[in-house]
Amino acid sequence: MWKLLTFPLCPFSRKVRLLLGEKGIGYDLEPEAPWQRRDEFLDMNPAGQTPVMIDTSREAPPLIDSMAICEYFEETVEKASMLNGTAGDRAEIRRLVTWFDTHFYRDVTAPLLHERMEKRIVHRATPDSRVLREAMKAAVAHLDYIDYLLDYRAWVGGATMSLADLAAAAQISVTDYLGGIDWKGNEQAKRWYVGMKSRPSFRPLLAERMEGVSPPPHYEKLDL
Amino acid sequence: MWKLLTFPLCPFSRKVRLLLGEKGIGYDLEPEAPWQRRDEFLDMNPAGQTPVMIDTSREAPPLIDSMAICEYFEETVEKASMLNGTAGDRAEIRRLVTWFDTHFYRDVTAPLLHERMEKRIVHRATPDSRVLREAMKAAVAHLDYIDYLLDYRAWVGGATMSLADLAAAAQISVTDYLGGIDWKGNEQAKRWYVGMKSRPSFRPLLAERMEGVSPPPHYEKLDL
Q1: In this protein, which residues make up the domain named GST C-terminal (chains A, B) (predicted)?
Q2: What ipTM, to 2 d.p.?
């Protein structure tokens, strides 16, 4: 059985969980708050980040780093491949996974998590409205980019649903939980995201709550 | 024929170039200074980063993101596989590639590139000695981690040479070019790095120079 160390608003864990959901792989959740920098956690993963996955059925090193975890399950479980097509198609999917994991995260998810989650539950401080405004402006630019991609392909990463969609939806879902997205524009991105939200793999994520931080009323709804 | 857009001190391009060298894949270099944020480059790669690889022999989208590029050549060229072993072994290799690309880069290479390259050739400013000291201290911690890994395995990523070695050597070589490493301690890491430097895939990198920035005398030598 797999055990996944994470916290409800970890966008990288959400990408992994969407993949596990699509592939039908079961796992138990084990709460881990990386900002607490627990010694045992750092000994296991010096990067100090979630997700970490442990196979409790055998003696094996834990799986660390969300992309390494996704590649592992792509290699070992054939069902619902999320790295489809030619080598070139797969390169484009991986480029976009990095894009959302790095750029979307840095511009949007990370500042929102800091201002609206960490400041509330760790520092008991009020969010910086300037930082929030910048992050929300960046979110619009990122949704514009998704609109642009969807102008000439069916899914974010190409002709089929892929890890690029899961990576994008993971970051967006955390951003949306934290009230960082104004769904007034970006019709294409919105339609795509509602499609992602309606998948069975997405439901458990939407039902979870981070203690002390509430999502906006539309967060779980399928009509944005 | 492949064309690689890069600049001499791009650590991510160095990782790709070491892989191409090991696999015996030829390519032409095309200078690209990402800090100039050239419009045509940003149109091609919104992330604005090197490396980008273009196959000039056919109409195909460019390959973007250093890990996506490495995975592409791992999938298409069998020779000198750098992702060896079981799925678990490969997960460990990929974890360490992310470690060096993200953490070593953030803690060591990025501040050194900013202080000793960008400030010199772009801003014409003097480096901040406090930032340099912090980066060099972080470099020691990273070499300690490599020592620790080499305590119980033959190579950084496991029993065979892998992409983890290439990623680590790429970051270290740029750091070393910028005078960021004190080779007095870390005997294991030093022996391993001298081994990496002596590979034919490494020689072209060591011979290159970044205009306006000179490496220390030991940079190319095999006796550190």
Answers
A1: 86-216
A2: 0.97
